[in-house]
Amino acid sequence: MTGSCSGGIVAAVASLRTIAGPIQHELPRIKGSRFIGFIVRIRSLAAVEAVLAEVRAQLPGATHYAYVARIDDKTERLSDDGEVRGTAARPIHARLAGAGLLNVVLVVVRYYGGTKLGKGGLVRAYGAAAAEVLAAVEVIEEPIRTAVTLTCSYSLSDRLQAQVIREGGVVERVDYDTAVTLTLALPADRPAVLAALLDYAGVRQH
């Protein structure tokens, strides 16, 4: 084989249970407050800020943007975003973990309606918003894949992408600069797929 390519494994996806696509759902107003839930599929915690930026752009000026992101049982991020500690992220996490969903971020946006809900009221409202979103989302079972980044020459890029697809992998992102950076998701139970991709002259694994 010819060409120059370097790559390395950056993360592992630990579960098959995720969502088919994003869902948005708003609860009926609770004492004037609006609670709007979003669930979006992600591959890593690095994607959380981009999702939050999109939600803030879609719903600007909200009082709180509480969220829970789960990649696997050990890779999570939670934020109450200014609500009383334990009243927002915790009930969202309870619903999300109970559904067994990973590779997702669930955001609940609140517009304060002028009447305080108290700790119990907040827990119920955030939990209900998360539950309503989860009731509407389509859950899918996906093959376990390992996230990989490869940097390669332009001449090699198309060949690698075609090989990934033939082997049951996914090309998630392609970035063009002085070289081509491929963000891939490869079958986790077939390490030979990655080995074959790296089996090109001049390969340097990170």
TL;DR?
With 206 residues, the protein is α+β, with helices and mostly antiparallel strands. It is built from 5 helices and 12 strands.
Mean pLDDT: 88
- Helix-strand string: EEEEHEEHEHEEHEEHE
Biggest sheet: strand arrangement: 10-11-9-1-12
Pick out the low-confidence regions.
8-15
Fourth-tier CATH superfamily name of the largest domain: Impact, N-terminal domain
The CATH topology of the largest domain corresponds to Ribosomal Protein S5, domain 2
- The count of strands amounts to 12
Beta-strand portion reads 35-45%
* CATH hierarchy, class of the largest domain: Alpha Beta
- Whole-angstrom Rg: 20 Å
Please tell me the CATH architecture of the largest domain by its name: 2-Layer Sandwich
Query: What form results from the Cα inertia axes?
Result: elongated
Query: How many domains in all?
Result: 2
Number of helices: 5
- End-to-end Cα distance, whole Å, is 20 Å
Largest sheet: 5 strands, mixed
Percent of residues in helices? 25-40%
- Multimeric organization: single chain
**By helix and strand content, what is the structural category?**
alpha+beta
Report what the structure shows.
The protein has 206 residues and is of the alpha+beta class. The protein has 5 helices and 12 strands. It has 2 domains: 5-14 and 143-205, Alpha-Beta Plaits (2-Layer Sandwich), CATH 3.30.70; 17-141, 2-Layer Sandwich (Ribosomal Protein S5, domain 2), CATH 3.30.230. The protein has helices at 48-58, 89-99, 118-136, 154-166, 191-197, and strands spanning 5-12, 17-19, 23-26, 34-41, 64-72, 75-79, 104-111, 139-141, 145-152, 170-176, 180-187, 204-205. The model is unreliable at 8-15 (pLDDT under 50).
